Amino acid sequence: MKYLSKEEVIDRLRRYRFVKNQILEIIGGWVLSTPEVKIKIQYGRQLYSDASHSDMLKQRLYHLGARTDDRQITYPAQKFISYLEDIWRNATRTSVRLYTIDVLLRSLLVDMIRQQLEQTSIPEDKGTEEILRKIMSDDYARISWANSAIVELAEQGEILDDSVKQQLKEKLNQGGGFMESENPGVPFRKEFAYSRMPIRPGDWKIIEDPNDYAEKANTFDNVEGKRRLLHDLMDGELCSIERLGKMLAEFSELPWEMKLQLSKQAWDESRHAEAQIRRLKEFGGKVGDYPVNYWGWEVDVNRRDPLERLAISNMTFESEACKHMNNWIETARATGDEESARLIEFILMDEVTHVQIGKRWVEELTKGEPEHYKKVMAYPESVLQTIRPKGIKLDDLEQN
Ligand SMILES: [Fe+2]
Ligand SMILES: [Fe+2]
User: Fold this and answer.
1) How much distance in Å is there from the Cα of 4 to the middle of ligand 2?
2) Which residues touch 89 (CB under 8 Å, ≥6 apart)?
3) Ligand 1 geometric centre to CA of 320 (Å)
4) Distance 193 CA to ligand 1 centre (A)
5) Cα gap 322→46, rounded to integer Å
6) Confidence at residue 221, expressed as pLDDT on a 0 to 100 scale
């Protein structure tokens, strides 16, 4: 048996890391344009799972002596990068997206890992082995999830026939895989058109006029109010997954630790949405039952400075939501609804950390640039002069 040398192990881990980071960015971008709520939520989970894998690889590379950023990633041949770019630009159907990235690309990655494990010498490279086994088992789970999601989509009429699958397989083969070293490529930027509102299933009702929203009875002291509120909260979580995914896709140059935290936040928001949907169902409601609005959307996701996005959403909207949540917990408990109180309590704990993530990175990335810091921090206020996104009361903000 020929075992891999340390340098060969390093080379492989760097390439897996490239693949994981690309999956993170591509899925991050697709979160926005995928209408199916269930898949959007799963994508939110996957962002963190892929980012964690990339982080484990990064740490292992460090332990193997590859300590600087440029030694922790390898760009494969341009042919493969062009293949990914083609997928990014042209895969618009959800089933095609699931099949290319979550089935084919993950299967290729798992094959490479399995091959490596056969050439891994234990115990000296046990550190790598454990990480690779973890990645492999998570990716197997993703592949089987994607396959069943494709079947479910087919039942709803979006059929991915065998000839299309075959074409997609051939495309991947033509891309040559990520182990080739000749003619290394340059990663492409993931670009987005201006976005007015997120993509939702076609039968959802969207409120265009803010005045219509004021009429809504979002209270937490009766069942109808709870249904409305849970639905609104759930839609807000979807918006968060989307805005975080977009940031990860659009700004690959952000510090790694920041991207890891943003992806963790996306996972939190996915769990929140799932818990809210569960509770909504327990109250007899379902996803898509109530109209939604997107007044906080445009002013966030289109900003060129990612820190302004954090200032408006993490530091302002999420901080405002925390105050409301405290009220809802009290109201739920006062009316004997311990289950809802507990649910919101768990969510609130995460939301507090989201405000902190925003604050931390705004401060860290404007260090030594007081003018930039001032501009970023002035942004939310300037927005709230002209619009009033859901749940935000200007007078509340003025008191703080
Ligand atoms: Fe949340
Ligand atoms: Fe949040």
Assistant:
1) 43
2) none
3) 12
4) 26
5) 25
6) 85
